Amino acid sequence: MSKKYVMGNGAIALGALSAGVNLVAGYPGTPSSEIIETVAKYPHDGTYVEWSVNEKAAMEVASAAAYCGARAMVTMKQVGLNVASDPLMSLAYVGVKGGMVVVSADDPGPISSQTEQDTRRFAEFARIPVFDPSSPEEAFEMTREAFAYSEKYKTPVILRPTTRVDHAYASVDCPDSFTAGEYEGFVKDSKKWVIFPRLSYMNHAAIEKRNVEIGADFSACRFNSVSGSSKKAVVATGVSFAYASEFLKAYPDVRLIKVGTPYPLPESFLLEALAGVDEALCFEELSPYIEESLLKLIGKHKLGITVRGKLTGDVPPSGENDADSAKRIISRFLGLETDHAAEDMSGAPEPPARPPVLCAGCPHRASFYAVKRAMKGKKAYFCGDIGCYTLGNAMPLDMVDTCLCMGAGITMAQGFNHMDGEAVAISFTGDSTFFASGITGVVNAVYNAADMIVCILDNSTTAMTGHQPHPGTGRNLMSSPVEKISIEKILLAVGVKKVVTVDPLDLSAAIAAVSECALIKGVKAVIFKSPCVAIVRPNKKCAVNSEKCIGCLRCVRELGCPALSVKDGRAVIDSNLCTGCGLCARVCPADAIGGDPS
Q: Residue 21: which of 5, 3, 45, 41 has the closest Cα?
């Protein structure tokens, strides 16, 4: 045994490994990505680990392992749980044999997501237990405990960390190497493992009965606690408990109630913890889940307790909590005279606004610019997707009209085409997103005779979430190099009329490819293939010849590259940022940009 200083995601991974996990599968998504990367990093004898093509695939792979009696974990971010919801809902009814933990990392803020959805709601909807860690250390312990609960009650269990828990650091005690536990194997029983309506009906009744038992079990769980004895209570969960606990160190008499297992609600624990309380503040992130649960509990038992929180406007209805908001909100609730809001105004200047931007030298910039040039003067719809290339919406490119969810760009472009046949419908999809959820959309386009251009921005990695491999990279997490899956062959196999592969940094060829496809009816595809500049960084640089520069600033105005700026009315290039992609040189009408002579 030794102490390991790890990120919260690393703590979850080590918790699973120390619990003898046999299989781990998932799809990368901030803030959850490092869980699987940590599992792959540490010696793990007998544990299979994979990046699946999407969250649904990961859930189904893990479910089969759990049917075998093995311990399985599946990881994703909160929007990924939407993708995996189909198998999860059925798993809740069918149940499992081995322990199965579903890690769904929520993203209050949101910091890097489309939504602020609350996985606790999903757990209640699916009727499966959920653990809500308040720190990396607790995430480690809860992961181990979740496997035990899963096996005890034959159900998947959700672990719901949030961004600040996922990305915080702490020390945990665990072995230096790990060995997967033994398992029985799959025992065929169609009456149990093949879901039918009659079986679902019977299992639903059993689930509701079982959840009452789990709630009673949770009431004695070490992850729920109470301190202090005042008539005013602060009820907190997740990382919000950590903020509340830190502030209330100065007020030890204030009753602080932690709910680490929000569903099924630990009713007996809460009734005991709330004894003698007149007023309770629910301090939580995202939805008023605990607040609503307390209101139901108080109504059920006819308790005279006033509940405050998001529903009463005492806690903000959206966004994440932090130490300052805990100080401000709890002080107001307790009626403290100290003006903590004023204390927070330290006089420190606001940090400068730093909007997200495509990296200098990113090939996606060239892809967008090529399409923009090819479509100049034409009516066109540009449907984006989830990934680095979502940033193509920013000025001056302004090339993403829509972005809904993973894979939606391809199918939304079809909808625009069917509604407005006079316009050119174009979608932008990354290589990883294509494998995750884009193939179905292409099949739908061909089948339903859409007229559109599918642009695949292939940078040979999953760049947005940390450069994880995917089926097109030729490697996975478990073996030596594997067969690359060709995007071009898939497109041709499903009936795409024309597929052109081009280097987007060859600007004239890229413009010509898009222009050619625009003249052809049906589904066409342009694969813009150039590696992510963060993993294949060129050694060369570009520089502006100030004597040749005419000050038109076309390079600056049209590309928006962070390496380009203006000085004394002339374009200049920051050599610390430039990667030498040469796109600006191809745009310059005065031939004033070339290689750095130094």
A: 45
Q: In angstroms, rounded to a whole number, what is the distance separating the alpha carbons of residues 15 and 241?
A: 21
User: Is 537 a domain residue?
Assistant: no
Are 299 and 323 part of one and the same domain?
yes
Cβ atoms of 164 and 28 within 8 Å: the answer is no
Query: What element of type H or E holds 288?
Result: none
CA distance 252 to 230: 9
CA 327 – CA 91 distance, rounded (Å): 41
**Strand 169-174, strand 2-7: pairing:** antiparallel
Q: Are residues 331 and 371 in the same domain?
A: no
Q: pTM (2 decimals)?
A: 0.89
Question: Measured on CA atoms in the order 32, 38, 40, 46, is the torsion positive or negative?
Answer: negative
Residue 348 has pLDDT above 80, yes or no: no
Whether 339 shows a pLDDT value over 80: the answer reads no
Tokens 């060829």 -> residue? 509
The count of domains in the chain is 4
Q: Is residue 352 part of a domain?
A: no
**Segments in 307-429 forming alpha helices (H):** 323-334, 340-344, 363-374, 408-419
Residues 99 and 119 in one domain: yes
pLDDT of 508 > 60? The answer is: yes
* Sign of the C-alpha dihedral computed for residues 186, 191, 196 and 198 taken in this order: negative
How high does pLDDT run on average in the chain?
Answer: 93
Confidence check: pLDDT of 208 > 50: yes
Residue 535: is it exposed, middle or buried by C-beta count within 10 angstroms (0-12/13-18/19+)?
exposed
**Is 177 in the same domain as 321?**
no
| CATH code, domain with 127 | 3.40.50.970
Has residue 461 been placed in a domain?
Answer: yes
Radius of gyration over every alpha carbon of the chain, rounded to an integer in angstroms = 27
* DSSP secondary structure letter of residue 179: E
471 in Cβ contact with 27 (< 8 Å): no
Do the domain assignments include residue 443?
yes
Q: How far is the C-alpha of 147 from the C-alpha of 168, rounded, in Å?
A: 23
| Rounded CA separation 443/407 (Å) | 12
Name 416's Cβ contacts closer than 8 Å, sequence gap at least 6. 381, 383, 423, 425
- Exposure b/e, 185-218, CB count within 10 A at least 16 = b: eeeeeeeebeeeeebeeebeeebeebbeebbebb
- Looking at the structure, do residues 29 and 66 belong to the same domain, yes or no? yes
Q: What is the rounded average pLDDT of the residues 413-432? A: 94
CA 157/CA 171 separation, integer angstroms: 25
Q: Where are the beta strands (DSSP E) in 410-547?
A: 424-430, 452-458, 498-502, 523-529, 542-544
Q: Does 173 score more than 80 pLDDT?
A: yes
Q: Check whether residue 470 and residue 564 sit in a common domain.
A: no
